[in-house]
Amino acid sequence: MSDTHAQSVQFVRGTMIPEQDPPITEKGALKWMRENLFSSWLNAILTVLSLYVIYWVLAHILPWTVGGIWDAESLSQCRDIRDASGIDYNVACWAVITDRWHQLLFGFYPSELYWRPILALIIFGAAIAPILFETLPRKMLIVSIAAPFLAYWLLWGGSVWGPIAVAFGFGIGWAIVTYGESLLGALGAIIGAIVVPVLYWLFLAGPVGAALQATLPIGIAQIGSNQFGGFMLAIIIGVSAIVLSLPLGILLALGRQSDLFIINKCSVIFIEVIRGVPLIVWLFTASLLLNYFLPPEVSFDLMLRVIIMVTLFASAYIAEVVRGGLAALPRGQYEGADSLGLDYWQAMRLIILPQALKISIPGIVSTFIGLFKDTTLVVFIGLLDPIGLSQAIRADSAWNGIYWELFIFIGLCFFIFCFSMSQYSQWLERKLNTGHR
Amino acid sequence: MTETSPYATDHVVDRSHMKVSDEVAIEINNMNKWFGTFHVLRDIDLTVYRGERIVICGPSGSGKSTLIRCVNALEEHQQGKIVVDGTELSNDLKNIDKIRSEVGMCFQHFNLFPHLTILENCTLAPIWVRKTPKREAEETAMHFLKKVKIPEQADKYPGQLSGGQQQRVAIARSLCMRPRIMLFDEPTSALDPEMIKEVLDTMIELAEEGMTMLCVTHEMGFARQVANRVIFMDAGQIVEQNEPEPFFTNPQSERTKLFLSQILGH
Questions:
Q1: Looking at the complex, does the CB of residue B98 fall below 8 Å from at least one CB of chain A?
Q2: Residues 6+ apart with CB under 8 A from A300
Q3: Which residues of B touch A338 (CB under 8 A)?
Q4: Which of A17, A31, A42, A121 keeps 20 to 30 A from A172, CA to CA?
């Protein structure tokens, strides 16, 4: 005898239950508010309190911002206009922005030549677009290759042959890598591709450029680095350092993972030393100390030195971020690539780095955002970044004593850049998500 | 006699193409390997002839995976000699890459590349290692994907496939390099029972075409049906090897008897 009731065990469903809508209180805005804002008495009180605080803050900031004065020639005139209109609270004096925006953006770059940095920015946009967005035609990459030289020439001016002579060095390196492998072997080709261009740049590029300029003079007015300033300076340093530090950082990360003793130790020492010292120290090194070490006839442009230092600094951070991505990959990915007969560089380029970099995107973008904001530190070595220019503007008696308006404008410009980088990285992460693991 | 594995038993194996030739595919001579101070492989001697299907079994930690991973140099051996397809494994990277491109390997966890589609997984090595034109590599890939019966998944990503499908893709990916030898490292250990069958069927088809295979597996049904030799390993050494029928019905070593009674007994 079984001790279960036969009737309670057997069950056969005749018709399936159709899908039904949830009750009205369980969906839409009502449900959301009830769950998130008024789920209990305490939460309801906190909600009301928070709303009041938000109102209080906005009530103080908005009239100041929105009621700001855009048309005046000095801070005192701003105050006169406000007094004349009978307003009894403070308002912003945005007139300083309308009066000096060109300085905040371009520094002391000659105003009749503003088209040059603007054109350089457009070229940069065209160059970076095919790298950021895969769907654009691959032929646009030609612009990306030419852009650095073109932008350099537009910004600093001078003979067109100088950048061309430098670009030719890269051409030599590329030719040695592509065609030299059969002659020199893989390692020989790589070493040759580094040594020959460097020798060419040191001893030949200058005379070649000068000779070409002598035979066929083409050039535009030369602008010294000391005339650069404002956001133009921040963007030039930031973008150059970002573009250069990513490949360098990846190489350092691979070096730190390498089994080759010397490469491994060099990478570790480089990363730890660069990361262990504040950026400001490296910037002072760039501005002061390098001159002691270099022979007196070599005069390195200060901006170039700063770009190199910021690049090295950022690359050490990128290296560690990328190393985290490399470490996060399962060993099986390395073995899978190895078992198919891919060599080291193929495995890295096709299998390991695409995945490791994808994991590292948030860290890499954080580093880039930090780097971009750190460019304001160059003010301490005498370069006129936006912050430095705000001091220069205040030095003018017309705008003496104006702080908030300038800093809000500068902050807003930085925010636009950093926020777009962050948005792009989130879009990229979503795009690269193939639903694995 | 108890039937051990219910899987892959309904497949009537066609032995007409399974021929073992006199040509040596892999020769391992007096090979020793250590992990640090741990002596993981001891005096391994093994000659594999072309067309052989060898199943290696043994308790975990016996070194069976390490042994086949030595064959394509995923693990480095410290003593002795391994010759694969007439090329001796040495420290020369060119040699190792060449051997790896001739020897296919399937892993327990598939090791597909999750950022590439199934088709890209299969064409990657032919395009970059063999320098096959893309069109041709894709045709080959589709041919082998049809063979493992998942051509319709070609544009999906590995993460969207079931375990059994992923392992079959992994087999197809190896086959796209037209290997002369296939290594299987516990290919069904990470799979559900239903999926084990589809992978084993694929492996049996491969065996029927005369592929030289070295399989580390616990699927004794597969061993009995397909293998021409079963090797039992314990404590880093080959304890016993024989043809499947006498190996299962009349094991000689006490250790083998114990192992077989444990895995066949239930």
A1: yes
A2: A290, A294
A3: 74, 100
A4: A121
Tell me, yes or no, if B113 comes closer than 8 A to chain A by beta carbon: yes
Interface check A350 vs B, CB under 8 A: yes
Given a contact cutoff of 8 angstroms between Cβ atoms, the answer to whether B166 and B197 are in contact is no
Of A342, A350, A434, the CB nearest to B114: A434
Residue type, A309: M
Which ipTM was obtained for this model?
0.88
Residue of B72, B115, B157 with shortest CB distance to A339: B72
Strand partners, B35: B38
**Quick one: what percent of chain A has pLDDT higher than 70?**
95
How far apart are the C-alpha atoms of B28 and B31, rounded to whole Å?
Answer: 6
Which chain A residues touch B118 with a CB distance below 8 Å? none
Q: How is residue A95 written in tokens? A: 């007139």
pLDDT, mean over chain A? 86
The per-residue pLDDT for range A251-283, each reduced to its tens digit, is 999 999 988 899 999 999 999 999 999 999 998
Q: Where along chain A do its domains lie?
A: 24-96, 103-109+227-432, 158-220
- Please work out, in degrees rounded to the nearest 5, the angle formed at the alpha carbon of residue A121 by the alpha carbons of A116 and A127: 125
- A50: which strand partners? none
Q: Among partner residues B114, B128, B158, which is closest to A350 by beta-carbon distance? A: B128
| Rg from Cα positions in chain A | 30
B125 CA: distance to closest CA in chain A (Å) = 6
CA distance B144 to B151: 8
Count helices and strands (H / E) in chain B.
9, 10
CA distance B114 to B131: 23
